[in-house]
From TrEMBL:
GO terms for cellular component: extracellular space; membrane. It comes from Stegastes partitus (bicolor damselfish). This is THD domain-containing protein. The keyword Signal does not apply. PROSITE patterns: THD_2. It holds the Pfam family TNF. Belongs to the tumor necrosis factor family. It is found in: Membrane. Residues 52-201 form the THD domain. SMART domains: TNF. Keywords: Cytokine, Membrane, Transmembrane, Transmembrane helix. Its main location: membrane. One of its GO terms (biological process) is immune response.
Length: 204
């Protein structure tokens, strides 16, 4: 009876195919990881660029009234060139108004500090009030954006009150921001105590 040699080639072929499939799966996983990493880097770069642009268009109008509470009729006058004040990013300042350079969402802020300064109080108790008014370019009418108030009792002792407020608003290009005060002659003379400004967060 003749003897025949048999070889199990099927098992080796299956193992080879399994190794190929495993290599392909590892390659796919590696490509997927690289793709996700590329997406992450792209998003990070976008955020970095957006942050840089936000810094470039951050603006403010700070400082104090040049004559310690000077007004142009109803509105406070501000300095825009003293050391801690600036007016950049397309903003302009004119006659008490901060002119909005482009339509978008802004953080608007104001702080006014009042103090006894030798002036006689008009009444024993004063209601201090600040308002930030906005005049949209589309119609010439004041809109109150922010308001803050406090009460001070005048006496022979020195007193000081700081009123601070801020908010987020959509503002039109060429709209104007301005501030009113109930008792401007009691406004402090230090620029770090009295400031007003706006910061662009996102534009249209």
């Amino acid at each position: 009876m003749e003897e025949y040699d048999f070889y199990e080639v099927g098992g080796e072929e299956e193992a080879r195919l399994h190794r190929q499939n495993t290599s392909i799966q590892l390659l796919i996983q590696k490509v997927a990881r690289l793709y996700r990493m590329a997406q992450f880097i792209a998003v990070a770069l976008l955020l970095l660029i957006s942050g840089a642009l936000a810094l470039l268009i951050t603006v403010g109008l700070g400082g104090r009234s040049p004559r310690g509470g000077a007004t142009d009729g109803e509105y406070l006058q501000w300095e825009s060139v003293i050391p801690h004040a600036f007016c950049q990013g397309g903003f302009s300042y004119s006659n008490g108004s901060l002119v909005v350079p482009r339509s978008g969402y802004y953080r608007v802020f104001v702080q006014v500090t009042y103090e006894s300064n030798g002036e006689q109080c008009p009444k024993p108790q004063m209601m201090l009030n600040n308002k930030v008014l906005y005049v949209p370019y589309s119609y010439n009418k004041n809109v109150t954006l922010l308001t803050s108030d406090d009460v001070v009792r005048c006496s022979t002792e020195l007193w000081r009150k700081s009123l601070h407020t801020f908010g987020l608003f959509f503002l039109e290009a060429n709209g104007r921001l301005r501030v009113t005060s109930t008792y401007p002659k009691f406004i402090a003379r230090n620029e770090y105590q009295v400031f007003f400004g706006a910061e662009l967060l996102s534009s249209q």
